[in-house]
Amino acid sequence: MVRNLKRLSRREMLTAIATGAAGLIGAQMAYAAPERYKPVQLENGQYTQSWFLNSFLELPDDFEEAKSNGKRFAILWEQDGCPYCRETHLTNLAIPEISDYIRSNFDILQLDIWGGRDIVDFDGRGMTEKTLAKRNQVRFTPTIQFFPDAFSSATPLVGKKAEVARMPGYFRPFHFLTMFEYVSARGYQHAPFHTYLGKKVSGLKTTGKGIPKW
Prior knowledge:
Number of domains: 1
Strand content: 5-15%
Number of strands: 8
Mean pLDDT: 86
CATH class: Alpha Beta
């Protein structure tokens, strides 16, 4: 019964909560247009985005919801006191072109590598965030795991093998956006990321546009 409620009205429930209380999401909705890319700072000093998934922490459900919305599913791993996590929010995701692209094409679930919240992995097994991070061999932050647009019967559902690409640490804005484009275009089916990145750089130079100076 809870699962049906979640799929049918998750967004509606969150909207009701936001309009009924002065929560973080509601505060972000009140920003003027130029500031709508500002991150939300939590009580512990960490940052998040108002458009990140508000999840019941059941990965199969989050994956299916992203798929039904025509988006890809990714997990962003962070930890308290991580300077590059902060940079990701204050620099990379504050750039409109980057934020708009990711928001339109991906559902992002933010997790803590040392977190104690209960979560259900793709194979149905329950564990804490910390255990899931260890299971997925996530050792650095920020780390982003990108998952396939569909799981087949042959696709592993456990650990690092379930992902199609990984951003292992902080990437500068141009490389950061290119990684999301790489996953969106299923570039991982044809070449490693550095090859895709090199072709993009060459193409920009050929057209005279150059690399954006964010």
